[in-house]
From TrEMBL:
Coiled coil: none annotated. The lineage of its organism: Bacteria, Bacillati, Actinomycetota, Actinomycetes, Micrococcales. The chain crosses the membrane at residues 6-31, 70-93, 99-120, 141-159, 165-186. It is a multi-pass membrane protein. It is found in: Cell membrane; Membrane. Keywords: ATP synthesis, Cell membrane, CF(0), Hydrogen ion transport, Ion transport, Membrane, Transmembrane, Transmembrane helix, Transport. The gene is atpB. This is ATP synthase subunit a. The keyword Cell membrane applies. Belongs to the ATPase A chain family. Key component of the proton channel; it plays a direct role in the translocation of protons across the membrane.
Length: 239
């Protein structure tokens, strides 16, 4: 859309990502600039969102002490993904900022680095050893167990985090495109009795739009939750 053919080319998705970032910063700025003991409606909504991440993700998985240490990164991941996902159901935007692999991959790398950092901070000498060579396993079995642990712990995790978020948002976008494109076709191109089918495809499009709101929230929750789980595994006593 801007600067086409240059290294600074900006696509429609880039503009949506910028818009989502501006709205996210604006929401938290407006919600926290005049904090009061008896919160107003907007402050209550912001506090509810922050409490949701703190209680249901950080404290439930990591406990109060460790959860508070990693609460900033978990909160950032949750709300960034949520605000990037929601444009997928907003008219005239109609595509989430997470529908290109760059954003899910970057977030997965942040989660991965946080997980490694937590493990090394907890046990600098034994983190990788305990991850790759679990205690209580007969030494000949390590020939099988260690490669599996290496792949599942240090390779599969960032890959699955990336693909889960990317594919869910892409598939949702494509389904909405399919239903609303079908509505347009039946109504304006096919004409005649085919126009009756436009009501059905429009209804399905509306239902899936509501479903995509759930998916947008759920994917943000799952991503932050899995990050907390990985951190918890990294700081477990056996590490």
């Amino acid at each position: 859309m801007l600067f086409e053919g240059t290294w600074f080319a900006i696509t429609r998705i880039n503009l949506i990502q910028m818009l989502a970032t501006v709205v996210l910063v604006l929401v938290f700025w407006l919600g926290t600039r005049r904090m009061s003991i008896v919160p107003g409606r907007f402050q209550s909504v912001v506090e509810f969102g922050l409490d949701f991440v703190r209680v249901n993700i950080a404290h439930d998985i990591l406990g109060r002490k460790v959860g508070d240490r990693f609460l900033p990164i978990l909160t950032t991941l949750f709300f960034m993904i949520l605000f990037m996902n929601l444009p997928g159901i907003i008219p005239f935007l109609n595509i989430p900022g997470t529908a290109v692999i760059a954003v899910p991959l970057l977030l997965a790398l942040v989660s991965y680095v946080t997980f490694i950092y937590a493990g090394l901070r907890k046990s600098p000498k034994n983190f990788f050893k305990n991850s790759l060579f679990p205690a209580g396993v007969p030494w000949p079995i390590y020939i099988i167990v260690t490669p599996i642990e290496l792949i599942s712990t240090f390779i599969i995790r960032p890959v699955t985090l990336t693909l889960r978020l990317l594919m869910n948002m892409m598939v949702g976008h494509l389904l909405l495109v399919l239903f609303f494109a079908a509505t347009h076709f039946f109504l304006f191109t096919a004409g005649g009795w085919w126009s009756l089918l436009a009501a059905g495809s429009l209804a399905f499009g509306f239902v899936f739009t509501l479903f995509e709101i759930l998916v947008a929230v759920l994917q943000a929750y799952v991503f932050a939750l899995l990050t907390a789980v990985y951190i918890q595994l990294a700081v477990a006593e056996e590490h």
